[in-house]
Amino acid sequence: MTVRVRFAPSPTGYLHIGGARTALFNWLFARRHNGRFILRIEDTDQNREIPGATEALMGALRWLGLDWDEGPDIGGDYGPYIQTERADLYRHWANWLVANDHAYKCFCTAVELEEMRRHQQANKLPFGYDRRCRTLTPAQIAAKEAAGLSHVIRFKSPLEGETVIPDFIRGDIIVKNEQIQDMILLKSDGLPTYHLANVVDDHFMEISHIMRADEWISTAPLHINMYRAFGWDMPVYAHLSLILNPSGKGKLSKRTQAFRDGDQQVLVQVEEFRAAGYLPQALCNFLANVGWSFGDDREIFTMEEAIPRFDLSSINPAPAQLPYSKLDWLNGQYIQQMEPIELAKFVKPFLDAAGFEVNPEALLVVMPPMSKRMKLPADAIDFLRFLFDDAPLSLAAEQLTHKYLPRESARTGFQQARELVQTAESYDLDTLSSGLIQIGENISANGKAGPFLGTLRLAITGQQVSPPLFESMLALGRARTLARLDEILALYE
Which tens digits make up the pLDDT trace of 56-74? Predict the structure, then answer.
């Protein structure tokens, strides 16, 4: 069997994090088996389509690194890959089902359907279409058509027995046929519903495996019965695990934007993760761990490393929560792997958006030590605030002391540090580190440089949390560092 899988989003919204996990698993499976990963746009719900959503969906997939082998922008032997461009195919097969007594024309109006729902509610009857048009005679159908009444086409679901859903991940799922509705396949405007287009496209695109979210299990009995009616072979079904909120309480909903789950903000769109500063490789690594495990107790791995290990039989069907704290940690790990210039370019737009202009050279200096302290690029704003905040230091001389560094010793150390900064022939890390360490060892009561260096860092940056001292001084530059030291020494006057 040639593995052919598809990701088929609807342009009624942007790429949801749950959809991204589905796309990733399909992509991994295709790459694992040297198969084909197909992108199909299911745009038959024209009333809910959002302009630009198709381009945004494709952009989000590209950002994640999920390339497709066939799709609307690159074509392929099984196209077109946009459903509204395949409308004639759906109409043909809907009419074929009617002609072969597997579907029927339904002429019920919206008013009639609403009256039916009210009757069911008032009499505590099961909700759903009551199949009143299923038994229309040919003469009755002809009369309604002659009167110009519009109609939809509904599938004739079996009324008795059971339908078995053979699921590769979950095993057989058995559904009583009395629970299956006669769903609409073709709407009155001639466009298909999801059910018809989905089955027809998967057949003619020769999809071998349908890997999708568990929420679609309820549609599988209808689709299986449609495959049987058509006489077509079914793809392999594999329904992925339910994704829970980060708290583990409740399903992660298909919201259109971030929301709060208790005290935590929950991002839901891939674009929101991108805008927040998550790296695509970190997000893919995170999603691969939701319902699947790399093995060997490894949390960090590339998608290239995951491909040869990815197997449907190792997917866990149990509900899985999204531990966003783990995503933050992973993002920090990937940030540490970035080259300083790459990280500086990554961080700078977030500083610019906050209204802070930082010298690129200064940014490069602090990136290596900063990378170990960052989980998101926005973290740099608070770390580096001293670089773009020229407000007077809100410190008193008493705050710049230590039990091994009394007031006068501290003052002496700051004065010597100023002389070092002013007279050093080369203003670089080696000069600053060797000179300041020597000063600290000479003036501290315990003979160690730590008390002085920690106090000097607080004095220079005015922050409890900041980059290391030497990099901070280098990033400030000689002139600004001298100005800070003058300001500190003035505290002792």
Answer: 999 999 999 999 999 999 9
Residues 6+ apart with CB under 8 A from 236: 166, 168, 208, 209, 210
pLDDT of 360-408, one tens digit each?
Answer: 888 999 999 989 989 999 999 988 988 887 767 777 888 888 899 999 9
What are phi and psi for residue 151, nearest 5 degrees? -150, 160
Looking at residue 77, its amino acid is D
Q: How many CB atoms lie within 10 A of CB 159?
A: 11
Strands 209-212 vs 236-239: parallel, antiparallel or unpaired: parallel
Please name the residue that has the structure tokens 């038959």: 44
Q: Using a cut of 0.70, tell me whether the model's pTM lies above it.
A: yes
Calpha distance 282→327 (Å, rounded): 7
Residue reference for tokens 């977030």:
350
Q: How much of the chain is in helix, strand and coil states, percent to nearest 5?
A: 50, 10, 40
Strand ranges, E, within 4-143: 4-7, 36-39, 103-106
Give the DSSP letter of residue 329. H
- How many angstroms separate the CA atoms of 319 and 391, rounded? 51
SS3 239: strand
Angle between helices 280-288 and 53-64 (to 10 degrees): 80
Neighbours of 408 (CB within 10 A): 11
Q: Which tokens hold the place of 360? A: 């690129």
The string of pLDDT tens digits covering residues 373-386 is 899 999 999 889 88
Alpha carbons 365 and 476: distance in angstroms, whole number? 10
Q: How far is CA 265 from CA 251, 273, 288, 420, in A?
A: 15, 12, 22, 47
Helices (H) and strands (E) in the chain, counts: 20, 13
- Tell me the catalytic residues: 254
The span from the CA of 120 to the CA of 256, in Å, is 33
Among the listed residues 54, 56, 59, 67, the one whose alpha carbon sits nearest the alpha carbon of residue 24: 67
| Dist CA 254 CA 251 (whole Å) | 9
